[in-house]
Design brief:
Layout: E1 8-12, H1 16-28, E2 32-37, H2 40-52, E3 59-63, H3 71-81, E4 87-92, H4 96-105, E5 109-113, H5 117-127
Parallel strand pairs: 1-2, 1-3, 3-4, 4-5
Helix pairs in contact: 2-3, 3-4
Length: 137
């Protein structure tokens, strides 16, 4: 797999620990984390800036509950301006109603914390419409 085949990911979460854990997990799965943001407002601004330099991520993992702007509002804002964006929500158990709102806002799927490696992989591949080929070992 050459570098052009590697999916670029932006991780959005207000917890530095979650950003680190998710980054390690994603890179273990063969993705490249190119950017992170700590709230929805920053996510929108950073995503717009990445568009300008033509270095946009293939997929964004977006936490739902964050300060300044939550993940649902950030998803809605990004999708309104960039409708082809692939966003996967990251949520805790018990936030099912919020997940439905996120999907209505344009998210392509969701993963639950704590992360299950296979579920994260399958959800991102599905969001990006790629064939899922598990390579765990």
């Amino acid at each position: 797999m050459d570098n052009s085949d590697v999916l670029k990911v932006m991780v959005v979460d207000d917890s530095p620990i979650i950003v680190k854990k998710l980054t390690v997990l994603l890179e273990t799965l063969g993705y490249k984390v190119i950017q992170s943001a700590e709230n929805g407002k920053d996510a929108v601004e950073i995503y717009k800036r990445l568009q300008l330099i033509d270095f946009k991520p293939d997929v964004i993992t977006m936490d739902i509950t964050m300060p300044e702007m939550d993940g649902i509002e950030a998803t809605r804002t990004i999708m309104n301006e960039f409708p082809d964006t692939k966003i996967v929500m990251v949520t805790s158990h018990g936030q099912e109603a919020m997940v439905l709102n996120a999907l209505k806002a344009g998210a392509k799927g969701y993963v639950l914390k704590p992360f299950d490696q296979q579920k994260v992989y399958e959800t991102i591949q599905k969001a990006c419409k790629r064939k899922v080929q598990l390579q765990f070992g």
